[in-house]
Task: inverse folding
């Protein structure tokens, strides 16, 4: 009996510890994926015969707004034309085949920095002819595991853009398309391992003394390194033309040059830009 108790107590402690660890981990994922809302919306969608899953196209003419995204050639982005017919679209293939190149497909100078290369390339190439509203999003339309960061009940980017309050974007200048702070903006995330003082200074080196710099106090971003940097993930946002134009073209060329020249990998350089878009477009570091 003593022998059994001697081994039973450590076993119980191990099981309890494991359960606590699993609870903490799954609770974090549960919150990030907004799983309850997704499950409820999916159930409603099934009961209604997929009416939520396949909404009708929005009628009307193409308006003064554009969707910008990066994709690999194999990804299907037909949903943009089918479900967002009132938006212009600029879809960049980052790994174009010779056939895609011969068809005049939009491409990026380099397949690096994840979506940032396409985002910056669009701004640079259209700086003098930008639409009034620009939405920067990922190419996947929906999906629990793939598009979990899209803040709609079914994680659907078509729904997100149809729900976008364009007047708010015009008034505020910038709007993150994700409201959930987890991950990226909660207190533990703000000591940002991706945005070190050195990386911050590299990205903003040579950038203009913009009207954003310390809210107009005349200090360049590269001269001021915040102690915390936080933003709701994952590089999907909308900005107004006026907000983009409050930086000169040379700033965006400099940001793209950093992505091209940095020794950081595709993923890591893209992550750096993910945590800096809001700063680039005039918002506080947190």
Result:
């Amino acid at each position: 009996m003593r022998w059994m108790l001697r081994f039973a107590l450590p076993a119980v402690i191990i099981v309890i510890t494991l359960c606590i660890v699993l609870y903490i981990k799954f609770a974090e994922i549960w919150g990030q994926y907004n799983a309850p809302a997704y499950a409820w919306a999916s159930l409603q969608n099934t009961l209604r015969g997929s009416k939520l899953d396949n909404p009708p196209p929005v009628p009307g003419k193409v308006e003064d707004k554009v969707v910008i995204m990066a994709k690999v050639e194999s990804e299907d982005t037909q949903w943009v034309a089918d479900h967002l017919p009132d938006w212009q679209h600029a879809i960049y293939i980052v790994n174009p085949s010779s056939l895609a190149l011969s068809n005049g497909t939009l491409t990026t100078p380099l397949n690096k920095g994840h979506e940032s290369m396409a985002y910056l390339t669009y701004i640079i190439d259209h700086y003098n002819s930008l639409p009034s509203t620009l939405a920067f999003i990922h190419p996947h339309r929906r999906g629990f595991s793939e598009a979990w960061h899209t803040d709609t009940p079914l994680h659907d980017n078509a729904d997100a853009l149809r729900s976008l309050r364009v007047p708010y974007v015009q008034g505020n200048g910038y709007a993150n398309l994700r409201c959930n702070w987890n991950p990226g903006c909660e207190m533990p995330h703000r000591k940002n391992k991706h945005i070190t003082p050195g990386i911050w200074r590299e990205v903003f080196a040579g950038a203009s003394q913009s009207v954003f710099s310390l809210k107009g106090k005349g200090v360049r971003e590269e001269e001021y390194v915040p102690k915390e940097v936080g933003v709701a993930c994952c590089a999907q946002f909308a900005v107004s033309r006026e907000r983009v134009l409050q930086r000169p073209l040379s700033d965006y060329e400099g940001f793209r040059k950093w992505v091209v020249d940095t020794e950081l990998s595709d993923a890591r350089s893209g992550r750096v830009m993910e945590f800096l878009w809001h700063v680039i477009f005039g918002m506080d570091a947190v």
